[in-house]
Structure formats: structure tokens, C-alpha cells
Amino acid sequence: MLRLGVLCLWRRRSLVFGVPAKNLGLRKVASGVSPPGSTSPRALNIFDRDLKRKQKNWAARQPEPVKFDYLKEEVGRRIADRVYDIARKFSLALDVGCGRGYIAQHLNKETVGKFFQVDIAENALKNTLEMEIPTVSVLADEEFLPFRENTFDLVVSSLSLHWVNDLPRALEQDTDEIQVNYPGMFELMEDLQGMGESNCAWNRKALLHRDTMLAAAAVYGEMYGNEDGSVPATYQIYYMIGWKYHDSQAQPAERGSATVSFGELGKINNLMSQEKKSQ
């Protein structure tokens, strides 16, 4: 089965999901841009960042970009849900590689005071989704962010960091998996292009012959095809989160202050019943 790796900045969480798609037909879901070639001295120069900017700009210019937003919408919603799990408000937050604002649209002013949205593609920033949080759009490369350290209380990222050259190996953790069933390999390729997710590696092949692609589609369908004729593709989603400490966050209780031991957790229902009777 084809597995496509995508990255979002969040915490580790290992689950497998299937979610309904919108407008998919048979597709079912089970301060400034850096100059070309400029990377840090230590980075592996694998991806053509200038090409990735052009791909994302092309995708954002299409008359119906929402047609290809199903995966980014779903992951943006999941990240927002995880932000709500943190019992505090973030005055200033940053979304690295925001696209059209897939995370911010699911957040509210009670959770985030102000949201900086950064993306390499100016057309994506011009075509952002509706949201209630005050936002600032910044055109910048994820590899060269124009912010000082210790600026933000919260940093998130959705489906963007997998095209970054200078990515720490520490991101190798357990993943979410979203499986999408496509009518065929060519529909999968069409959607990746519509998402702005076409390959931008320097060593990519500029052109594949039609016979080669037809043969690959036939082999893929024969090896991994579903009974209904569709073919599955699995998106692997990596989650992490980083946020700044704040005094309003819940603090651990003092050592020795617990009233129930771990050994009694199996009897928790009985303990709660006894407490109610004593009240």
C-alpha cells in the first residue's frame, strides 16, 4: 500500500482513523521567502523550496481549491482539538506553513488571542478561510522564520514540515494514519497536485512516459486494489506540540497529598459509592 508521510507540529499520539471526504466522488477517506537553494550549512538539501512555493501558489490559484482541502481540513481540526485540551489561553500563537488557515478556523478567541500565520505561498495567504481570531499573515519560508526567540506562547504546524530540508531526526515517533480510497492512481496524483503536494525533490524525474505510468497504475491496482476497484493510500501524520510555560497552568499536587493509592484504582467505583453514602 502506498504510504505518504506528512508532518504536523504536535504531540505524539498513535491512532488509525477513517473519515468521510467532501466532494470526492469515489475518494473516500478510511520576513520573506528565502532565495532558491539557500539552506543552513548543516541541512541536507533534498527539496527544491522554490519549486514547492510555485506548487503551492498554483494550487491556491485554482478556481475550486476547497476540492482538495479534505485532508488538510481534517488534520487542522484534529490539531485544534488538541489545543483545546490544554487548560489555558495563549496570547500569541504561530502557525508554521498555515496554507489557507486550516487550524485557525477551528479555534476561538477564548483559546488564542492573536494568531500569526506563516506560509511560503503568497496566494495561500490571500485566500485564507474565515476565522474569528485576529490574524497576521506573514510571507516567509518555514526554514527561515523572521521571528525572535521566545516570541510565541504556542507554535503549531499542519502538513507543511515534510518538505523542509533542515528537519531534526527526533521527529521519528509513532503516527496517526488516515487512509483514503481513490478511484485509481491517477486520481491520487491529481489530488496531490491540487493540494500543492507534488514532489519537489531535486532528484525527481522531470517526466514519466505514459506507458510507464499506466503500467505502474495497473500493478498498484492488482497488488493493493480494493474489491470495489478503488486503491488505498495511507497518509502518515506526525504530531508534536510546543508551548510556553504559564503560571495559570495546572500544577502537580504536593508529594504525599494523594488520598487514593494506585493500588486502589481498580476499586474506584466502590470508593465513589461509599463517599456518596457518607455525604
From TrEMBL:
Source domain of life: Eukaryota
Pfam families: Methyltransf_11
Sequence ranges assigned to domain Methyltransferase type in this UniProt record: 94-172
CDD domains membership: AdoMet_MTases
Key word Protease present: no
InterPro entries on file: Malonyl-ACP_OMT, Methyltransf_11, SAM-dependent_MTases_sf
Keywords: Acetylation, Methyltransferase, Transferase
Entry's family note: Belongs to the methyltransferase superfamily.
Name assigned to this protein: Arginine-hydroxylase NDUFAF5, mitochondrial
Naturally occurring in which organism (per UniProt): Felis catus (Cat)
UniProt gene name: NDUFAF5
